[in-house]
């Protein structure tokens, strides 16, 4: 079971799909002010612009950044989900390639200025989309503030290096597949209910995300929301998030089929395996805690 699953995981990609958005009259857009721009860090965002700012938009509003196309949002959170407002502040990540690429192999420099526009959109219910509805786009465009931004020397060097790096992505892919296969012997399928409940009570997502010390230990997720569900050869892989926070993502493998689909709430009992990586929409990679589930129960559905 595990060998087949892990080969499946190696090919899993989290593609962000275009969606029609929310055409409700309750949609509102506010200006989002960038107060600081820096270069991101970490596995996924190490070459991205990290934009920090303030806005009058309410908590939970989605931060929109666009360049030439006001219908397309290019901002994400640290884990490639919507960047959201909290306590009047936000942090958003933008992959420079979505702004600087013009289809040619230019030499990227720190002197060229690029234009971006920012706004915050409230009451927009779609979770995983880069395309905005026509109404949302109009509201955003009307409220957006314009900024110019430049590449850092490290970013310029990185994007220039991509022109000579055609073989590196293949090597990286081969390495990811190899690492995934190695984890087939790292865990047991035996779930211990007492241990699972204790770990759920005592520890946080951050404890599980930072190391592979949890391999073989039981864990109970009482409520998670499904970001993506994939079935292949009678096996299931789910990407789910907990704590109502899309940054708290787990990859879950199950030997069998489940009725769980995107936006479902699920209860999961499982055993930790080695942390797994999946491809993001911008061609990067995100590494998250991984569980081999012995039981997955659908408990509800997100109604927004």
Question: Which tags fit this structure?
Answer:
single chain, 304 residues, alpha+beta, seven-stranded antiparallel beta sheet, five-stranded mixed β-barrel, 7 helices, 12 strands, 20% helix, 36% strand, globular
In short:
This protein is of the alpha+beta class and 304 residues long.
Explain the overall architecture.
This protein has 304 residues and is of the alpha+beta class. It is 20% helix and 36% strand. Strands 1, 2, 3, 4, 5, 6 and 7 form a seven-stranded antiparallel sheet that branches. It is globular and about 55 Å long.
Strand and helix map with partners:
Elements: H1 2-10, E1 28-39, E2 49-55, E3 62-66, E4 75-76, E5 89-94, H2 97-100, E6 114-122, H3 134-143, E7 145-149, H4 153-161, H5 168-182, H6 193-202, H7 205-209, E8 218-232, E9 235-242, E10 249-254, E11 264-279, E12 285-301
Helix pairs in contact: 1-5
